Amino acid sequence: MRNFLITITYDGSCFHGWQIQKNALTVQEVFQDALFKVISERPDIKACSRTDSGVHANMFCLSMKTEHKIPPERLKGALNRFLPQSVAVLDCKEVPLDFHARYDCKGKRYVYKIWNNPVRNPFLRDYALHYRWKIDEELLNKSAQDFVGKHDFTSFCTDDGREMDNMERTITHFSVKRDGDMVMMTVEADGFLYNMVRIMVGTLLKIQQGKIPADGIPDLFAQKSRNHKGITAPPQGLYLQQVNY
Amino acid sequence: MRNFLITITYDGSCFHGWQIQKNALTVQEVFQDALFKVISERPDIKACSRTDSGVHANMFCLSMKTEHKIPPERLKGALNRFLPQSVAVLDCKEVPLDFHARYDCKGKRYVYKIWNNPVRNPFLRDYALHYRWKIDEELLNKSAQDFVGKHDFTSFCTDDGREMDNMERTITHFSVKRDGDMVMMTVEADGFLYNMVRIMVGTLLKIQQGKIPADGIPDLFAQKSRNHKGITAPPQGLYLQQVNY
Predict the structure, then answer these.
(1) B112 shares its domain with B49
(2) Cβ–Cβ gap A9/B121 under 8 Å
(3) Which of A85, A119, A125 is facing B80, going by the closest CB pair?
(4) Nearest to A86 among B80, B119, B122 (CB)
(5) For residue B127, is it within any domain?
(6) Domain end residue (candidates: A65, A95, A125)
(7) Chain B nearest-CA residue for A83
(8) Domain end residue (candidates: A95, A130, A155)
(9) How far apart are CA B186 and CA B188, in angstroms?
(10) Which of A140, B61, B89, B198 could bridge B48 with an S-S bond, Cβ 3.0-4.6 Å?
């Protein structure tokens, strides 16, 4: 038996997220179909995480076991031939048999992109949030530092029906930077709860609008409530940027 | 009567080019439809040029005459509300009555983008040419300087059925530069013949492949023949970048 770690990238606007589902095209489905064409097997696939419909991945990792003898470089090339243009395999390598793409993940980095100009950018309609009004990136960067550290993120996630016994996560980095008309929010943590990045981004935009005070994040942590309707930023700005093992 | 100069940008992957045609969606059609919703008129529209199916515009200019009294800023806002997300109006202003978006154009700049990596970029499938093999941008930049100056471009255009009495154009700038895995070819001229940029880009790629010698461009000019089958680079890498008046 061999274990492979495969790194892919995909344009989330073409898919209803990573995880396979009935009646909707997902990245997992097209990946498994391409894999079947190469190795004539449908091994169980362990993914580093799930992504929502419309969320992108510059880097997404998965592991899978097979007895097939294909060399990693040939597997990479063959998968890229059978995958649609909206997905690409960046790397394939053999890893120890006990490696698991989710359990062995030490941390991840997400980027959220905001096109900050009164006029929309036609090229970014599926690749960034369009926000017409002024964003003070220095103000938001300062507020965002209150997210950094170990916290119970109950106030900053959506109930997805999964039982969670531990709502604590540790954010190691949160920055808000501007490059021309593009505002980029970058978050690194040991793990993320459901919708956590999009709710933190939405919270910062509410701070920008004066609907939440600039120093209001500690209060929201203390509330431990999911009473944040309408605060989740839309998916098209979000990119899974890096996965650390 | 008033004359408007309107600057737009559009994602060409959503359209069969600029110019209106039966049975295919074009930028001109969606623009005229949005305009009709705003001013209840269908004025004759003069465009700076035509773009082919799949070709993008970061800047595209048109002029049109109307007796409507709408202020330019309101026209811009209203058009942006009615246009699809794949088109945006960047600027609207009043110009002298004798201004014509095509005849008064002094020059244009195009950019051609090439994703130069063995693995495709899923985000650029409609926004750059994917070229897997090594590109020596310094070699190509040197060869490209033979395009600069006043030449008869018969060898570097496609016959589109229009009578052309003058095949001379003056290229004022041609550069080939690399930014990481992206190679950008930038061309400025007083005017362009049909497919001229895409054929020049295709010629440079043939030089990269050794199928045309690095100093072969003057010979091609001298041939004055359109015997260049398969040399036209595909549309998705091409952007109309700037229009000068």
Answers:
(1) no
(2) yes
(3) A119
(4) B122
(5) yes
(6) A95
(7) B122
(8) A95
(9) 7
(10) B61
Q: Does B88 touch chain A (CB under 8 A)?
A: yes
Q: Is A127 annotated as a binding residue?
A: no
Q: A90–B122: do the CB atoms touch at under 8 Å?
A: no
Residue A69 structure tokens: 């003898």
Instruction: Give the mutation candidate from B120, B132, B239 for the A interface (greatest A CB count, under 10 A).
Output: B120
Kindly report, residue by residue over A178-198, the tens digit of the pLDDT: 999 999 999 999 999 999 999
A123 neighbourhood in chain B, CB within 8 Å: 9, 11, 56, 127
Largest CA distance in chain A: 59
CA distance A126 to A120: 11
CA distance A13 to chain B (A): 10
User: Would you give the distance in Å from CA A42 to the centre of its chain?
Assistant: 25
Residue of A nearest to B239 (CA): A123
What tens digit of pLDDT does each residue of B120-143 get? 999 999 999 999 999 999 999 999
Q: Same domain for B36 and B144?
A: no
Contact between residue B234 and residue B206 where contact means Cβ atoms under 8 Å apart:
no
For residue B191, how many other CB atoms are within 10 A of its CB? 16
Catalytic residues of A: 52
Name, in order, each residue with C-beta under 8 angstroms of A7's C-beta and a sequence gap of 6 or more.
Answer: A59, A60, A61, A89, A90, A91, A92, A243
What do you get for the CA distance between the two ends of chain B, in Å? 22
Q: Are B235 and B198 in contact (CB under 8 A)?
A: yes
Alpha helices, H only, B88-177: 137-144
Q: How many domains does chain A have?
A: 2
CA dist list (Å): A5 to A60, A62, A242: 10, 6, 14
Pairing of strands A168-179, A182-189: antiparallel
Model pLDDT for residues A157-178, shown as the tens digit of each residue: 988 777 777 999 999 999 999 9
B102 part of a folded domain: no
The closest CB to that of A85, out of B56, B85, B125, belongs to B125
Q: Does the CB of B11 have a partner CB in chain A at under 8 Å? A: yes
User: What residue numbers bound the domain in which A24 lies?
Assistant: 2-95
Longest dimension (CA), chain B: 59
